[in-house]
């Protein structure tokens, strides 16, 4: 799931994607970088207004199965605190 953003509210779409284990590529800005961790639960892009930087991040996730698995598993863990069943 790739959703770069210049500014964001809470961003429920990111929690939903994380809960599903979707590999996430997004901007390295609050609030995403407050509950998603770079290279652990998401691919956070600092230079998110640079199309090449975004393309490189997307390629990394798509082409590197180990990295994709790591951030997908981390995303599920990152979403756990938001589970309303708890």
Kindly describe this structure.
This protein has helices at 12-19, 32-35, 51-63, 65-79, and strands at residues 2-3, 25-27, 43-45. It is mainly alpha-helical and 86 residues long. The chain has a three-stranded parallel sheet, covered by helices on one side. It is 47% helix and 9% strand. The model has no long low-confidence stretch (mean pLDDT 95). The protein contains four helices and three strands; from the N terminus they run E-H-E-H-E-H-H.
Q: What features would you highlight for this structure?
A:
47% helix; 3 strands; 86 residues
Order of helices and strands: EHEHEHH
Strand order of the largest sheet: 1-2-3
Largest sheet: 3 strands, parallel
Helix content: 40-55%
Give the tally of β-strands. Answer: 3
Query: Over the alpha carbons, how many angstroms does the gyration radius reach?
Result: 12 Å
- What structural category arises from helix and sheet content? mainly alpha
Low-confidence parts = none
- The end-to-end span amounts to 26 Å
Summed over residues and divided by their number, the pLDDT gives a mean of 95
Put simply, the count of helices is 4
Shape: globular
Strand content: 5-15%
Concise description?
This protein is mostly helical and 86 residues long. It has helices at 12-19, 32-35, 51-63, 65-79; strands at residues 2-3, 25-27, 43-45.
